[in-house]
Amino acid sequence: MPSLFDPIQLGAITAPNRILMAPLTRGRATRAHVPTPMMVEYYAQRASAGLIITEATGISQLGLGWPYAPGIWSDEQVAAWTPVTQAVHAAGGRIVCQLWHMGRIVHPSFIGGAQPVSSSATTAPGQAHTYGGKQPYAEARPLRLDEIPALLEDYRRAARNAIAAGFDGVQIHAANGYFIDQFLRDNSNFRDDRYGGPVENRIRLLREVTGAVADAIGAERTGVRLSPNGDTQGVNDSNPDALFAAAAAALSEIGVAFLELREPGPEGTFGKADRPPVAPAIRKAFAGPLILNSDYDDERGQAVLDAGEADAIAFGRPFIANPDLPHRFATNVPLNKDVMATWYSQGPEGYVDYPAAA
Length: 358
Description:
11 helices, alpha/beta, 8-stranded parallel sheet, two-stranded antiparallel sheet, 358 residues, globular
């Protein structure tokens, strides 16, 4: 079986190791969702990852509702992302852009007071993180059928923009209770048209979005993230094995470069699993490289590879505080501890000032 330090082919991308950097929202872009020079240094510092998956990046103004998060829909954003990819490549790294639509998680204050869109007229639990502080979520309106072509074009444009900015590919964010996940799961999708009801209908938008992106830039440069876990931001499903196995089979048919799963284990930091893992069913249904993510260390990650349960591991929080994470794993250097208070702050502290090992 391969080790974490062996190379792996992810579609068109040759990753030098199987220690991938998971997407991590950090809130260092501008209020206009334009990447900043500080982000160039941050990503370049982490170029030794087998593959960097960027923080979630908005495909459109309508789909982005997180303060200081970046987008990829405008020429200005493309121009600002370009130095990031150039710096990562100059440091020997590979990087893909995670494409994000938040759906009902977008607060109206981000979109000029408009109502957010989702699969159905539902409201997320809790409160939204906005420039004005915490505010209650608003009820979303169902996305109309006549709006779907424009949505697919938003994804196509974002994918093409990512390639124009120098990214090696993209990852479609279809996880964590966001827009596509709101269509996938049956406690948030109450539609009675061809996008709702049985599993084959609820995976239709995922299939169409992935197909649109793959047609735009190539399936070999298109990855997807799913979260076959329990409740995430109020989104859940009554039969996740059937749902996510069908979704994985559809993605396998399209021939995407890789599939990443965020599925907390029994002792997950951000919520414990409330059912047996779905990853084994997905493993059987998906023919491409499978990447697991959530609360792994190097020992547990290697055990998963040894068992043949996955092909690579994506590490999130360890990469926040350890820009040289692969080196630390290889040499058994203790890991720096990250500071949660600086996860989403706007300055360099807790962002580009974590030291590399001597």
